[in-house]
Amino acid sequence: MKKETRIEKRLDDLGVLPEPDPDKPIRPTIKGEQKLHHVMDHKMMIPILAIIGILVIAIGIYSYMNTSEEVYIEAAAGPAPPSRPDMTEAGAGGTMARPGYCTQYVSQGEYGSEDDCFAALAEKNTNPDYCLGIVDTQMKDDCLNWIAEEFLDIDTCFRLGLAADIDECLFNIALDTSDMEICFEMTSGDGEFSENHCLFKIAEKDRDPEVCGFMVEAEEPYTQERCVSAAKAAGVRT
User: Cα 92 from chain centroid?
Assistant: First the structure.
């Protein structure tokens, strides 16, 4: 009787039911069912973990191949050549106009000299700040004067080195724009590029004798009388 009980216990542990005894009620084997589920769970986890492992390895290989390709392309292409300077680079008056800024472009044959480089950049970008990088004084003033007169910028006139050059620059812009207010910025009262001559030429150009009335202490040959005569001779503006 004891041996039979042990067999039943072992079968019960394994989840195997003995042949039902018609005289005994069948009792549930909960412990055996739990073991069976535990074994099934482990068997299902194996393929899931395998799939996850394969995905991780595949992602790692893909990342390595892309990185290697990028490094190879960069090494094969070599460093990018320096871009030609233009106004997209900040600090024209400081960084761009510093001595030696145009050296690399001269060595590449872009310009004959650094002064030529700065002059060309000033003209191309309509920016007088580039003129400040020019070493030759006369060339620098020519650069500033060209920018000022080409774009009617009186502020650039005042960046010229000599007072006579400033007056000439202002004179030409005043005449081009018929703006007698610019004449009053001139420092010379008489002479070719003077305040009175400036007013004289605007009156003559615009055929407006009233402009002559703003001339002060005018001396020959740019007197008020001559100014009025010149304006009328050109034909009174209607």
Answer: 13
Report domain extents, the chain.
28-59, 86-151, 162-238
pLDDT single digits (tens) 111-169: 899 999 999 989 888 899 999 889 999 999 999 999 999 999 999 999 998 999 999 99
Q: Considering only CA atoms, which of 152, 118, 124 is closest in space to residue 136?
A: 118
What are the tens digits of pLDDT across the range 214-237?
Answer: 998 878 888 899 999 999 987 655
Q: Let me know: does 96 contact 122? Beta carbons within 8 Å.
A: no
Is residue 217 within 8 Å of 186, Cβ to Cβ? no
Amino acid identity of 54?
I
Residue among 131, 94, 98, 127 nearest 116 (CA): 131
CB atoms within 10 A of CB 73: 9
Dihedral Cα 77, 83, 88, 90, nearest 10 deg = 100
**128 preceded by a cis bond (ω within 30 of 0):** no
Nearest alpha-carbon partner for 11 in 23, 38, 26: 26
Kindly calculate the radius of gyration of the chain based on its CA atoms and give it in whole angstroms.
48
